[in-house]
Amino acid sequence: MPRHGREKVKRRCCPNWHDVSVIEVQELTKRFGTVRAVDGVSFTARPGEVTGFLGPNGAGKTTTLRMLLGLVTPTSGRALINGRRYAELERPVMEVGAALEATGFNPGRTARDHLKVACMAAGLPLRRADEALEATGLAEAADRRVIGFSLGMRQRLALAEATLGEPRVLILDEPANGLDPAGIHWLREFLRHLAGQGCTVLVSSHVLAEVEQVADHVVIVARGRVLRDAPLAELVRRGELTVRTRQPEELRRALEDAGAAVRAEDGLLRVSGVDAERVGRAALEVGAVLTELVEERSGLEDVFLELTRAEMGETQ
Amino acid sequence: MIRLIRAELLKIRSTRMWLGMLGLSVGFSLLGLGFYLALAGVEMEGGQSLPPVTDPDMVRAIYASASSGVLFMMILGIIGISGEYRHGTITQAFLVTPRRGRLLAAKLVSYFVFGLGFGLATVLATVAVAVPGLAIRGGSASLLDHDVPTILGGTVLAMGLYALVGLGLGALIRNQVAAILVAVGWVQIVEAIVTVAVPQVGQWLPGGAVRAVTRTTGGFGGLDELNTLPVWGGVLLLLAYGLVFAAIAAVTTVRRDIT
């Protein structure tokens, strides 16, 4: 994505300017009356990664994102993008793109006019409106009033708007809502492409299967608090390996010598306490032929339900 | 700032709402005008219902018909801000311009400018019908006599300032339907009653200020002369209302959480 010369200059002369685009949320809290909608939330979303922000309804996801974007004032704590609060960003639209809800359109306005308003206000060239419509597959519908748009088309228009300023940080609230399977596939490719270019992507969702396929890192919240903040791979790893071999007895002894717990089951060995590499080495040492070596994973959904159920039980 | 104002003006132009409101503004103005032209000096049940078109008060009333359009510019102002909350476009607006005070300032300036244009269009339509109408009824076709320039200019200014009142009301109430009902109820019921029942209070209301700048004292058609401020007093009062409601719009919007 093209960077602007102006920003490079600023980067050199401003000591606080981060070299990379990051989202940092530190001890963020928001009280509405007596309700703590967000209660000491901290996490970081890094460049080159898609960070999934997950939680049940009412967990405080949207409030957190809105504090990050300067729409809601935090009761305490900080939410920073590239080291600064949103309101302090020089050209916010060129640093951060956000799509918060599918309803943020005047139904009587055409898609192109909607984007042109944003371009004008942000000081972007008006051709960016057409380019963004093209990139999100809405070029055909550019001159139609939004009232005739499906939910999926509104989501695409929201994404077009978020990418108008070609930002390096993208914050999306439930972007998969209302998309058909082809749209979801397109969205996944789109997000992976952005992350591949070094962008920082924060996506809130409750469609866990979607997040599982696209996220590198996952932050799970419930009742305004962070329950887990971990790489997806680590989160879903169960720590058990399934091994199929022609020499189960020899391998079993070797693994147990290496400190693993091993159960034999229908010609399979279920191994825990060591990693896959250690299993491979053990097999090599005893000359066992491996026909299968699988790291068992639980679905993100299981992890999510387990975590949130524990949280709900604990506080009730 | 200029780009924000241009963006706000595009927001107004890019939906059809303003056309509808302009249609209503012109329609209401011409309705009142037609009523005056038709009934001026006509004998009814032994007496004259309205003074003849040669009476300066009648001429003033005819040109002041255009000022009935202020209600519709006020509604456009209400929609200009409550519509942003209703459709959630306020989120986009604040994401693009996180310094909310600047966005509000741009909105106030563009609605004021748009209101002047809206007023000019309404006044031109009124003049286009009033001049030939008066000529046909045997009145003066001059646009310079009987305070007509003051009335027309005052109407245009009132439209611009009523746009600000609308923005303030929309920012305060935010529920679009409720805000419009309050505006219509205020203009059509509260002000109408207070003006006739307690004119010494009525002259200080926004509607009283409009009567002052349009030189409509109500002193015909059987009514007594109503208390009315001088023209300059009306202008100052209108400006004060415009600024107070602009301040309300700014104060209620700058710090509020957008959820």
Automatic annotation (TrEMBL), chain B:
Coiled coil segments of this chain: none
Pfam families assigned: ABC2_membrane_4
Keyword Transmembrane included in the entry's annotation: yes
Superkingdom of the source species: Bacteria
Keywords: Membrane, Transmembrane, Transmembrane helix
Segments passing through the bilayer: 21-42, 62-81, 108-131, 151-172, 179-198, 231-254
Keyword Acyltransferase: no
Protein name, UniProt field: ABC transporter permease
Taxonomic path: Bacteria, Bacillati, Actinomycetota, Actinomycetes, Streptosporangiales
